[in-house]
Every structure is written in structure tokens, then in C-alpha cells.
Amino acid sequence: MLWVKTPSAATWTAQVKFEMPSRLGRTHCGLVLWNGREERPADTREVQVAASYRDSCTSGPKELSRHPGNSGTFVVNNTTTKGRLRIFKSGNSYRFAFRAPNVKGWQDLGKLEATVKDGFKRVGMFVKTWGSEPVEVSFNNFIILPGAWD
Questions:
Q1: SS3 105
Q2: How far apart are the C-alpha atoms of 103 and 100, rounded to whole Å?
Q3: What pLDDT shows up at residue 60?
Q4: Which residues touch 108 (CB under 8 Å, ≥6 apart)?
Q5: Nearest CA to 84 among 13, 25, 26, 27?
Q6: Under DSSP, is residue 115 helix (H, G, I), strand (E, B) or coil?
Q7: What is the four-CA torsion angle of 45, 47, 52, 58, rounded to 10 degrees?
Q8: CA atoms within 13 A of residue 115's CA, in its CB half-sphere
Q9: What distance in Å separates the CA atoms of residue 145 and residue 12, rounded to the nearest whole number?
């Protein structure tokens, strides 16, 4: 995982482009909102957004969607190997989105409601494999700025 500290602003946007030769089983990659606690692998062959969340450190899309106040799938439900991922923070809400190449507009992946207890102070990119095949992902044009933008 490669991360940076989040801005102190009440509203900010983080975005990154990703590309991979192929999607492999027993792997996942994406954009992460992190509080510094350990998190565990979730599902496989996914491009996702994740968060090490609450006391349980749950992080996968299924766990995130079960928390009260949260909504969405938190995962890109197609076989794409490239695109952009985004996290938009406003107050204690975090919205996650995906944009495929050559497509206008963003696909909403979900909304996470946080508390001070969650302590999200880092955002970054991650790649995980717990299989025997290596996974290759290129991230570029990572931007995190105060405010909202398209």
C-alpha cells in the first residue's frame, strides 16, 4: 500500500488512474481510505475501494455495505482492466466512484458514513494477492485536493 495523509479540509477529492494487463483470482487492487489499522483480504479478482473501518478493521465491500448509514456495493462490477477511482469527502461522508475509459460520468460505488472514532487520516493505492500468481497494476495521476471537482 502506498498512501498519503488526507487534507485537513472538511471537503476533499482523491483520484487515481489504474491499468492492469489482466484481472487475476485471489487478488484485489484499488483506492483505499485507511486509519492505520490492519485489514484483511476480501473478495477476489476485484477492483475496489476499501477502508479499514471501525474496531473490527473490516475492509471489504461486503462488510462496508452492511454498516448502518452506508450504501452501495463498493466494487467495480465488470471485467475492466483500466479506469479511474475516486473518493470524495464531505464532512463525515465519503463517496466512492469509478469511471471507465472513454465514458462520461462516474459510476457510484457507495457512500460510507464515518465517525471520529474511525480516524481516517490516510488515502492511497493498494494491490493484494494471496495466491501464487503475481498481480501487476500501474497507478498514475494520483491527485488529492481540497474541495470538489470533476
A1: coil
A2: 6
A3: 67
A4: 72, 95, 96, 97
A5: 13
A6: coil
A7: -40
A8: 7
A9: 6
Q: 111: exposed, middle or buried (C-beta count within 10 Å: 0-12, 13-18, 19+)?
A: middle
> Where is pLDDT greater, at 107 or 51?
107
Three cell numbers, residue 147: 474541495
The reported pLDDT for the residue numbered 53 is: 44
DSSP annotation string for 29-95: EEEEEE-SS-----SSSEEEEEE-BTTTTB-SHHHHHHSTT-EE--B--S--SEEEEEEEEETTEEE
Burial code of 8-30, b = ≥16 C-beta within 10 A, e = fewer?
eeeebbbbbbbebeebbeebbbb
DSSP secondary structure letter of residue 140: E
- Block residue for cell numbers 502506498: 2
pTM: 0.80
* pLDDT tens digits for range 59-88: 567 777 777 788 888 777 777 889 999 999
Tens digits of per-residue pLDDT, 104-117?
Answer: 999 998 898 876 56
Q: Which helix (H) or strand (E) holds 143?
A: strand 138-146
